[in-house]
Amino acid sequence: MDDSAKPRDSENVLKSLADYLADDMTACNREIIARMASDVPLIPQLAAHLVAAGGKRLRPLLVLAAARVAGYREHGEAMRHVGVAACVEFIHTATLLHDDVVDNSLLRRGLASANAVFGNKASVLVGDFLFARAFQILTADGSLPVMAILSAASATLAEGEVMQMTTQNDLSTTVDRYLQVIYGKTAALFAAACETGAVVAKADEQTREALRQYGANLGMAFQLVDDALDYSADQAVLGKTVGDDFHEGKVTLPVLAAYHAGDEEDRAFWLRTIENNEEQEEGDLDRAFALIARSGAIDVTLDKAREYAQAASDALDKTSKASRAANADMEPLRQLLKDVAIYTVDRAR
Predict the structure, then answer these.
(1) How many alpha carbons lie under 13 Å from residue 128 in its C-beta half-sphere?
(2) 197 and which of 67, 97, 138, 246 could share a cystine (Cβ 3.0–4.6 Å)?
(3) What phi and psi, each to the nearest 5 degrees, are found at residue 112?
(4) What is the tens place of the pLDDT at every residue in 164-204?
(5) What are phi and psi of 108, to 5 degrees?
(6) Which of 68, 18, 13 is nearest to 330 (CA)?
(7) 347, 227 Cβ separation under 8 angstroms
């Protein structure tokens, strides 16, 4: 991606997107908080902990942005795109709660994870509650296409996590298999967020598919960068414990690239620490960082992320001419979405 295409301050591009959609996001946050209410005190308590942890709210932002780019207007009806955006955030948050339990993660967004504060049982059950709330919202919306997209994405998310579990500790995993994993665990919901926004806006098929492609490619880039950051960022930047992926024996592109680029001694190290990760010793994480850096594995991962980010940006140019002409006033928002793709990779710097 050309340097000339970069926004002047890529770290603030998500804030720019949120500011552009400020009214929609305010309504979405209000909906999220209202739908987290329950007569069972532990549920709003744990929900308040999640809200306090912050987060980019990128997935609901994508629903709102895709809907507006595709021409959504209220016309006196309820703000459907807001409900769908809240639904997507609940699905995402539910998966985070479950994932942190599965991975025994103690940090989330730089703060103690919900399972560390409230315990595993509460986290799993509140995750179930949020899934149920999500589908209550979908039922109230009543759109069969939106239900089909988000129910399929939810199944794909679960499949992605199971697939990741089956590739864990397995250095024979291919890059293609790894990419299937990250599509399932991350990119599928990005794609669904953008596609449902288009559906709510009653976009034509070409525009709907273009926005789905944008979300899918953005999600792939996003997860690739996350996997790179686990071996290149400090804990404050990462928002979780540095080296979690290494200690859990997760097979990500940085590990695969370093493993295949290494000599016999290097490969023996990866086999011991990843395939037989119960044998990890003090100092192994520092050596893993050194091998990752020496092999250029981070550059390999970020180059792949840039390919997906560029594909995301290009997908926005595939929306139909009729849609772009009818929604010419949304051109600044379309450009912001392109900037988001660039930000996704730039945050690893």
Answers:
(1) 5
(2) 67
(3) -55, 135
(4) 999 999 999 999 999 999 999 999 999 999 999 999 999 99
(5) -145, 120
(6) 68
(7) no
